[in-house]
Amino acid sequence: MTPRIAAAIPIARPQIGEEEKREVLQVLESGGLVAGARVAAFESAFAGYLGVPYAVATASGSAALQVAIMALGVGPGDRVVTTPFTFAASSNAVIHAGAQPVFVDVDPATGNLDPDATEAVLRGGGIRAILVVHLYGRPADLPAFRALADRYGVLLIEDCAQAHGAAVDGRMVGTVGDAAIFSFYPTKNMTTGEGGMVTTADAGVARRARLLADPRGDQEYAYEVVGFNYRMTEIAAAIGLVQLRALEARNEQRRANARWLAAGLGDLPWLRLPEEPAAVRSVYHQYTVHVPEGRDALARHLAAHGVASRVYYPSLVPHTPAYRRLGFAGSYPNAEALTRQVLSLPVHPSLRPDDLEVIVDAVRSFPGAPR
Ligand SMILES: Cc1ncc(COP(=O)(O)O)c(C=O)c1O
Fold it and tell me: Same domain for 71 and 86?
């Protein structure tokens, strides 16, 4: 008899249904592919979902970051505190705007930018903005960062690429900073294929962001800004409108999956599970455990049992070749420890109950677990 091989459980699986397909077909048949009613409707639905006055759709989260930073007036000569433990798009956008990232160490428990370490840098002066990333769907300490930004007179920018619908003290991420961005890349909590969004409560910032993303403006050929073409397409917006309606239910499924994993793995002394304090709503873009010893062996063991896992992130942005060439380096002990310990397990909403059982059984059967 051939042994039964468990089907591979992927780390992410975008959920695209019949409704998205129908909407996309309608766009294609309409012939109106850009800057139309669907983009406008998606912007206003997204702003309504968050409860923020303005939302500007873009071609990607990276594009949103760049136009948000530039729309806030951050540019050459400015220094922006941010995290080294993220996808490089966050600090890349600072560099593309002509400003300088100042990398600061993270909270060892959450992997998010550490407010105390940030304040130590702010005390030295010369900082224009703080760019926080809500890593893995777990909000950064937004009350602390808002207070720091106000006390030191700097801007607060939120990178919510991994955190659609996350909240602290009942306040949604993306509504607290002077501007915020979201990504709709396929693995995110909701997708448009490629796409992004800038959110802000400031009409001037929204207007500049819109012009930077689409410099055509109201008056033909009378350009107000030296902009880009970072527009979202109608096709992407049509998908986004459907995905946004499903977001809350899918976030709740992620949260239920996370509770299931916590119940199945909580007694293992060699594993540290993500925590969720009472004031925080995490939307579990990733379910990331810390494995102080044997992380890579565990990943191999899981793969052998048909369970995909990923290391987000195996290296720090300032230590990558691109950043070293620009002269970045520095020591970030908490973030460096995390690069050696973190492992993300599947938590996406299309997991079935038996997938969750396979994941828990695979982790529990790790023979390399420290005794
Ligand atoms: C934290 C973070 N910021 C920015 C981005 C960039 O978004 P995009 O891929 O849509 O350009 C991503 C992910 O892709 C991300 O994870």
Answer: yes
What's the pLDDT at 370? Answer: 76
Last residue of a domain, one of 243, 269, 300: 243
Query: In this structure, are 109 and 147 located in the same domain?
Result: yes
The number of domains in the chain is 2
Is 86's C-beta closer than 6 angstroms to any atom of ligand 1? yes
Q: Is the pLDDT of residue 6 over 70?
A: no
Of 344, 329, 255, 223, the closest CA to residue 295 belongs to 344
Provide the residue range defining the domain that includes 40.
18-243
Please give the mean pLDDT across all residues of the chain.
Answer: 96
Question: pLDDT for 268-297, tens place per residue?
Answer: 999 999 999 999 999 999 999 999 999 999
Confidence tier at 1 by pLDDT (50, 70, 90): very low
Q: Which H or E run includes 258?
A: helix 234-265
CATH number at residue 115: 3.40.640.10
Q: How remote is the CA of residue 87 from the centroid of ligand 1, in Å? A: 7
Q: Are residues 235 and 286 in the same domain?
A: no
pLDDT digits (tens, 9 = 90+) for 24-64: 999 999 989 998 899 999 999 999 999 999 999 999 999 99
Residue 312, preceding peptide bond in cis (omega within 30° of 0): no
What are the backbone dihedrals phi and psi of residue 184, each rounded to the nearest 5 degrees, phi first? -120, 35
Give the domain-ending residue among 211, 243, 275: 243
| Average pLDDT, integer, range 133-151 | 98
- Domain containing residue 349: CATH number: 3.90.1150.10
Alpha carbon nearest to ligand 1 atom 8, residue = 61
129: DSSP letter: E
Residue to mutate (ligand 1; options 162, 189, 316; most atoms within 8 A of CB): 162
Question: What is the residue-wise DSSP string for 148-211?
Answer: HHHHHT-EEEEE-TT-TT-EETTEETTSSSSEEEEE--TTSSS--SS-EEEEES-HHHHHHHHH
Tell me: do 237 and 261 sit in the same domain: no
pTM: 0.97
